Amino acid sequence: SQNEYDFGPLLTWKTSAMKDDEADKVQSNCDILRMSNNGPFATTINLDFGREDTVFSVDEEVMELEPGETKDLAVWAFPTEVGEVKDTLYASVAQNPEPYAFALTCTGVEPLVDMEGPWSDADGVSEEESSVLLDFDRLLLGRSETREFVLKNTSLCAVAWKLDLSQLEEFDRELRVTPTEGVMKIHGSQRIVVSFTAVEAIEVAPTILINYSDDEGGLEERVKTLELPVKAEAYFIKAVAIDEEGDQDEKSKPGVLDFGQQRVGVTAQLGFSLRNRGKYDISYAFGFKREAYAN
């Protein structure tokens, strides 16, 4: 509002102790009020806040001003919890019965990231945390598929993120992830693509770790982590296509039904069987390469 000064969003890990040794990290926590004495006499200003547990502070609690003098007053805000904080700075001027009031507000923030993917409903909501899974199901050898998930910054601060793919290292031929790190602006998002290629018969179940924090060096000191399990299987159909039944000629070739020489008009039959030696059901259909023999 017009009568309120708003410091805006401020990270909760910053403290007043950083004003001296790490001043460059707390510049956004400070602003300057100019106090002027427009009267003909020297005056004293006493400064105080309305709340005892205030997150605001000033560098000087008492200011002495000569006639016509102006001084800068540094006002600081260091919220310790997420959420909006309000207070009032009172400036009591000597010989003035009513203090001047300055309304102050700030918002404590911490990085927060949500994750959406195939497990989410139409509104991007997952019913249960345990349902979060990037599932490729089963793929025949030689095939490849991709899945996507989205990181969303739901906080009022920029968020730096980086994927920990250490559990995927042994499956570097099968799994690819891109991108692997970046920064999301306030309320920004990042789409991440994971691809799985069926190189050899294998079942994989690694977990992608999403590390994130504020973009002020947080990934080195203040890391939060989301977990995304991945499940995939590469398989091939183990079937012996042809097992001929009955006595076979020594010249017969494996996998070939040889009817030999037959008189015209004579119907001959040979039998064979299919065997599925894999873990999953398979479907099959018979066909002929040359239509002339199909009937």
Write the layout of secondary structure elements.
Elements: E1 4-11, H1 18-21, E2 30-36, E3 43-49, E4 56-58, E5 62-65, E6 70-77, E7 83-93, E8 100-109, E9 113-116, E10 134-140, E11 144-153, E12 159-164, E13 175-178, E14 181-184, E15 189-197, E16 202-204, E17 207-214, H2 218-221, E18 224-235, E19 239-244, E20 272-276
Parallel strand pairs: 1-8, 10-18
Antiparallel strand pairs: 2-6, 3-5, 3-7, 4-6, 7-8, 9-11, 11-15, 12-14, 12-17, 13-15, 16-18, 17-18, 19-20
Architecture overview:
This protein has 2 helices and 20 strands. The longest helix is centred in the first third of the chain and has 4 residues, at 18-21. Strand 7 and strand 8 (100-109) form a beta hairpin. Strands 10, 12, 14, 16, 17 and 18 form a 6-stranded mixed sheet that branches. Strands 1-8-7-3-5 form a 5-stranded mixed sheet, with no helix packed on it. It has helices spanning 18-21, 218-221; strands at 4-11, 30-36, 43-49, 56-58, 62-65, 70-77, 83-93, 100-109, 113-116, 134-140, 144-153, 159-164, 175-178, 181-184, 189-197, 202-204, 207-214, 224-235, 239-244, 272-276. The N and C termini lie far apart (87 Å). Helices cover 3% and strands 46% of the residues. The protein is mainly β.
Percentage of residues in strands: over 45%
CA-CA gap between termini? 87 Å
Which term fits the overall shape?
A: rod-shaped
Question: Helix and strand succession?
Answer: EHEEEEEEEEEEEEEEEEHEEE
CA-based gyration radius: 37 Å
* Low-pLDDT segments: none
The helix content is: under 10%
Oligomer: single chain
Beta strands, count: 20
Mean pLDDT: 87
Please give the largest β-sheet: 6 strands, mixed
Give the number of helices: 2
- Derived structural class: mainly beta
